[in-house]
Specification:
alpha/beta, 15% strand, binds nicotinamide-adenine-dinucleotide, Rossmann fold, 7-stranded parallel beta sheet
Length: 251
């Protein structure tokens, strides 16, 4: 499963214990050069430094995935530095544990903008270069919340955005298949990252009891599946979503 010679953009890669960082490191370990992009530029640059220590090329780039101009600059920087973009991982995301009755219009707009509009803007921005090279891999971070509703960590806006990603990915997959581009998603269950910090341990352990594997997943377990989808081994897979949830939801 080599990614030697590939160039990957990973959004939301700047979180210290995040899935994006694990994806960036995992793709680099398999040979890819990395554009670590995040609204937190310091975090993104730290991850890029870690990747350079692995002997791969990497840059940290500031991006706000909700802003088309900022996204265009991110892709422009990637093309200038590395000459191409083979892989886009749409990982940047935010959540908010709130009931619908308490969700404000501003909450709704913010969560939909980062999680769903961001996926649209970043995907659109890499399409032309991927079409020209007749090859590309777009991989989105959806969530188990897309399939069975939210819960302690995310509200209905989060579930709606993550379900929206699945519809968007299938539609885009059909549009771009003739250009050699595949579009797939992963749907993690509970993963041990900072996005869910704040819940008391006894509540967290009660959630573990509902998972057949009785534990949260690791960011690296998500990253390995993303790396598979980015590789030539997944050449015949498009419009698909892969659950990574210890059995907590099966479809
Ligand atoms: N952790 C879980 O249990 C879990 C489960 C299912 C899905 N996911 C999804 O996986 C992805 C990563 O989650 P995580 O747990 O690593 O979260 P995290 O909070 O650790 O990392 C998210 C990153 O996105 C960045 N970000 C936020 N808004 C941004 C914006 N507008 N532009 C650019 N970057 C922005 C943040 O700075 C942060 O570095 C998210 O899409 C999340 O919804 C996480």
């Amino acid at each position: 499963m080599s990614l030697e010679g590939k160039v990957a953009i990973v959004t939301g890669a700047g979180s210290k214990k995040g899935i994006g960082k694990a994806i960036a490191l995992c793709l680099a370990q398999k040979g890819a050069d990395i554009v670590a992009a995040d609204i937190d530029i310091k975090g993104a640059e730290e991850v890029a430094e870690e990747i350079k220590e692995l002997g791969k090329r990497a840059i940290g780039v500031e991006v706000n995935v909700t802003n088309e101009e900022s996204v265009g600059q991110m892709v422009g920087t990637a093309l200038r530095q590395f000459g191409k973009v083979d892989i886009l991982v749409n990982n940047a995301g935010i959540t908010q544990p709130v009931k619908t009755i308490d969700t404000t219009e501003a909450d709704w707009d913010r969560v939909i903008a980062v999680n769903l509009k961001g996926v649209f803007l970043c995907s659109k921005a890499v399409l032309r270069p991927m079409m020209e090279q007749k090859h590309g891999r777009i991989i989105n971070l959806s969530s188990v919340s897309a399939k069975r509703g939210g819960g302690v960590y995310g509200g209905s806006h989060y579930s709606a955005a993550k379900a929206g990603i699945l519809g968007f990915a299938k539609s885009l997959a059909r549009e771009v298949v003739e250009h050699g581009i595949t579009v797939n998603s992963v749907a993690p269950g509970l993963i041990a990252t900072e996005i869910r910090v704040g819940l008391p341990m006894e509540k967290e352990r009660a959630i573990w009891e509902t998972i057949p594997m009785k534990r949260p997943g690791t960011a690296m377990e998500v990253a390995e599946t993303v790396a598979f989808l980015a590789s030539d081994s997944a050449a015949y897979i498009t419009g698909e979503d892969i659950d990574i949830n210890g059995g907590s939801h099966m479809d």
